[in-house]
Amino acid sequence: MSPKTLWVGGYGPEQSSHGEGLRAFREYVVTATSGDLEVEVTWNIMDEGRPNTDLFDLVESGQMFLCYFSSSYLGDRVVELNVLETPFLFDDLDMAHRALDGDLGHSLRSAVRSKTPFEVLGFWDNGFRHMTNLKHPIHTPSDCRGLSVRMQPNTIHEALIRAWGAIPVAVELSEAIQLIVSRSVDAQENPLANTVAYGVDKVHPFVTMTGHLYGARGLFANGAAYEALADDLRAVVDEAVVRAIAVQRDSAAKFEETLRHHMEIDGIEFVDLSDAEKSAFRDASQPAIELAVQSVPDHIQELVTR
Q1: Which residues, other chains included, contact 279 with Cβ-Cβ below 8 Å and sequence gap of 6+?
Q2: Which residue from 16, 105, 223, 236 lies 20 to 30 Å from 269 (Cα-Cα)?
């Protein structure tokens, strides 16, 4: 009998925390099944000239078994996920992990399962998002006034940027990279890993550690394909996901420290907000926070701190 192949994919460099996670998933599956399950990896679908959103289409159609993707892209289909788009939701990574590995994560997985063909197997870190720009250091929301800022297509993200007095430019990633490197937009907001992976650090000399949004990347599998696996193989996939989550999160945390060090050596100016400055951003973000709260069922909001 020829081995069954699971096609998995992403949209970041192979040498990244997400690449490390995919590699850990593949290695465990192949080893634990003695090759009865093979894993084919597409590290970065954009290298094939395709937009990153094709990953969702491939998984939904059943051609691809699993991909990682920012949860914000499904917010229009699964409103419960918008809880993760609430500005300043989590104080730190530990708080985020407790929530996503606990009751909140279970409820979000159930909501996705009931409204889409996807099965969320777990959540990876995409880190906290920070502002970068090519104009000047940013210390307060007023420093953002008039800046054009690329962000993910998401109504809450757009409301957040408007609340700071900036101009949102919501486009998918392939187009966003072109806009940023051509200096057609003034700013963007991303975790440091993405800022470097997409070459933004070569264009933007200023980084403000706003930490305004936590980025979760769900591991989205095709639900039917996942359920069709034999029980023993499904158990292997589940364990592979657990191991991949641990590897990816650990790699992401270490990578951010290393990236900042190298970016500073390259002359990029970092702004670490004082408590008062962070509070000013949080206060200015209230319209977006209220929008997020209103868009999510109350029982989901209540699970954040459990």
Answers
A1: none
A2: 16
Torsion sign across C-alpha atoms 24, 26, 29, 32: negative
pLDDT class for 304, splitting at 50, 70, 90? Answer: confident
Task: Report the C-alpha gap between 297 and 279 in whole angstroms.
Answer: 26
CATH number of 4-301: 3.40.190.170
Instruction: Tell me how many helices (H) and strands (E) the chain has.
Output: 12, 9
Concatenating the DSSP letter of every residue in 114-183 gives: HHSSEEEEEEEEEEEEEEEESS----SGGGGTT-EEEE-S-HHHHHHHHHTT-EEEE--HHHHHHHHHTT
Across 1-5, 14-18, 62-66, least confident range: 1-5
3-state secondary structure at position 81: helix
| Amino acid of residue 179 | L
Domain ranges (residues) in the chain:
4-301
- When computed from its CA atoms, the radius of gyration of the chain, rounded to whole angstroms, is 19
Q: How many residues does the chain have?
A: 306
Q: Pairing relation of β-strands 187-190 and 269-271?
A: unpaired
Tell me how far apart the alpha carbons of residues 115 and 60 are, in angstroms, rounded to a whole number: 12
CB contact burial 236-258 (16+ within 10 A = b; e otherwise): bbeebbbbbbebbbebbeebbee
Name the residue among 49, 51, 37 with its Cα closest to residue 7. Answer: 37
Q: Residue 205: CB partners within 8 Å, gap ≥ 6?
A: 134, 267, 268, 269
